[in-house]
Amino acid sequence: MGADWKLFLPKTVTVLRQGYGFVDFRADGIAGLTVAVVALPLAMALAIASGATPEAGLVTAVVAGFLISALGGSRFQIGGPTGAFVVIVYGVISKHGYDGLLMATLMAGSILVVAGLARVGSLIKYIPDPVTTGFTSGIAVVILASQLPDLLGLTAAEVPAEFIPKMQALWAARDTLTPPAVALSAVCVAAILVMRRHAPKAPGFLIATVAAAVAVAAIGLPVETIGSRFGEMNARIPLPDLSFWTWGKAVDVLPSALAIALLAGVESLLSAVVADQMTGRRHRSNMELTAQGVANIASAAVGGLPATGAIARTATNIRAGARTPVAGMLHAAFLLVFMLVLAPVMVFVPMAALAAILVVVAMNMAESHRFRLILRTSSGDRAVLLATFGLTVLVDLTVAIGVGMTLATFIFMHRMSALATLEGRAPLIEGDRPDIGEGRYAPNQGLPEDVGVLTFRGPLFFGSAGLIKDAMDRIGTRRRTWILRLEDVPMLDPTGALAFADLLARMQGDDAEVIVVGASHAVLKSLMQATPRDRLKRVRFVKTFATARKRVEAAHPAPA
Predict the structure, then answer these.
(1) What average pLDDT does range 196-216 have in this prediction?
(2) DSSP summary character for residue 458
């Protein structure tokens, strides 16, 4: 307990204690500037795709990005708006308005702080890969669908948030397609992909955005821009304001807050794990969750969006030579400078260019390679993947994660229960096990006929408790002595222990002696908690089968 406080020590404090010099600052400055260049167009594009203004995305990247790096448990984490939030944010704004989103973000931040302090960070890793791959791939499809109007220059009076009605509305507006917008978005996507392949260190997002803006201004392409849709940009960080809070709406936005908190927690810790793999460092998961919570509370207070650790920007930060969390803080500072200086010219950025950026983001999120790999695995994993993916696209991310986790849990229980086996007679030949001693023989060989041996293997929990309950029925014959072998039982949960206690009662009810062999400490503890003491006193516990055999042979010697 004395060192528990270290779990909640920001990495920034650790770095400063270890010593921080000019060489470190220079490396962090270069990395921070590199990430800021990448994050500038991305923050605006993600905000617009979420149904917010471009300023909201920039404010989120500055405020939340600074706090995530300053307070987080990772040396290299870069925070801000991410593609994973687009679906949730768009839905919350459509249903509850922007004030509802701010409330949900504030509540999500509070949930993350509590989760971090409660040390839930180590539990999020148990979300199975088919679930995470299913909802990230589903989000990618939804993002692509949301960008079709800007990619194709479509004009639609009202586009529903739901996937199928959205596709129907866009199909109905197909006659409004604008060829210049299609050409510009296609060129931008191609340019970004080419730069990623042949010049991976170049800021492809920014180069494509600037080039598109220059082309629109110079040639006068008839495409929609940030200025034509949103007007002049208000380049400032608002003062904290919680006037959006209304208790009456808190219950309505709670499900969205839970979804935001879950997604922020999962993505931030995945990003931190990726950073650990790239650098050999170790992050503090609970401090990371706490920092994510504080950052989201602050983002909501200044009118920003939900934020979390961004895997791509974190990887860019590492590749650019970042050494400490100062790089992430400098990235936020550079973004603030860009906001203040470049706001007058950002209005010329075409919407088609920002849509092109999100197409590339969606392509990265889709994880098509991993999706195909899971499809080639077991039928259970395929079912979890496809259910999560389909529900994310067609219904709702919260429902998708809930159903995916529930389905994955049942599949896991089925697999675990399949590992549990019961043998009324052990194999005819057993290998040279230390509990057998010299020679090779079946356990029942040489034992009296009225001595039964039951060998349990695998975890005995509520999913496999029926195996215990059926044990007597499967064996059938009444015995004078029962030897119950538990050497290969790794765990016994309360349900399994109660079933095992009932089995002991049935055996002892026939006045049979019961010998339990090889129960581990954990199994023995569960059994003692579920079995009455008077019943336990009549059970003999031994470590090896050889000991049990000697006891039986001593009590019932073979006739001369």
Answers:
(1) 88
(2) S
DSSP designation for 284: -
Beta-sheet strands, E only, within 241-317? 308-309
Strands 481-488 and 513-517: parallel
* DSSP letter assigned to residue 492: B
3-state secondary structure of 437: coil
> What torsion do the CA atoms of 34, 38, 40, 41 make, to the nearest 10 degrees?
160
Query: What residue ranges in 505-548 does DSSP mark as E strands?
Result: 513-517, 539-542
Residue 110 CB neighbour total at 10 angstroms:
17
| pLDDT bucket at 79, cuts 50 / 70 / 90 | very high
Distance of CA 83 to the CA centre of its chain: 14
Identify the H or E element spanning 444: none
Residues 508, 501: Cα–Cα separation, whole Å: 10
Distances (CA, A) of 235 to 83, 146, 238, 343, 443: 23, 26, 9, 6, 81
DSSP string of 323-342, one letter each residue: -STHHHHHHHHHHHHHHHHH
DSSP assignment letter at 244? T
| 145 in Cβ contact with 392 (< 8 Å) | no
The tens digit of pLDDT for each residue in 451-488 reads: 888 889 999 888 888 888 777 666 566 778 889 999 99
C-alpha–C-alpha distance, residues 213 and 196, integer Å: 20
Query: In 124-246, which residue ranges form alpha helices assigned H by DSSP?
Result: 129-152, 163-172, 179-198, 204-219, 226-230
CB atoms within 10 A of CB 4: 9
Would you give the DSSP letter of residue 377? S
- Tell how far CA 402 is from the center of its chain: 12
Q: How far apart are CA 212 and CA 190, in angstroms?
A: 13
How far from chain centre, in Å, is Cα 163? 24
Please give the structure tokens belonging to residue 178.
């604008």
For Cα atoms 92, 97, 98, give the angle at the middle one, nearest 5 degrees.
Answer: 90
Amino acid of residue 165: P
Q: By three-state DSSP, how is residue 172 classified?
A: helix
For the chain, give every domain's residue range: 21-376, 421-555
- Can you spell out the DSSP letters for 88-138? HHHHHHHHHHHHHHHHHHHHHHHHHHHHHHTT-TTTGGGS-HHHHHHHHHH
3-state SS class at 457 = strand
Tell me the pLDDT band of 363, cut-offs 50, 70 and 90: confident
Say if residue 27's pLDDT is above 90: yes
Distance (Å, rounded) from C-alpha 90 to C-alpha 155?
A: 19
- Three-state SS at 20: coil
Q: Report the distance separating Cα 240 and Cα 249, nearest Å.
A: 20
pTM over 0.85: no
Query: Which CATH code of 3.30.750.24, 3.30.470.20, 3.20.20.210, 3.40.50.720 fits the domain covering 421-555?
Result: 3.30.750.24
Closest to 454 in 3D by CA, of 505, 515, 509: 515
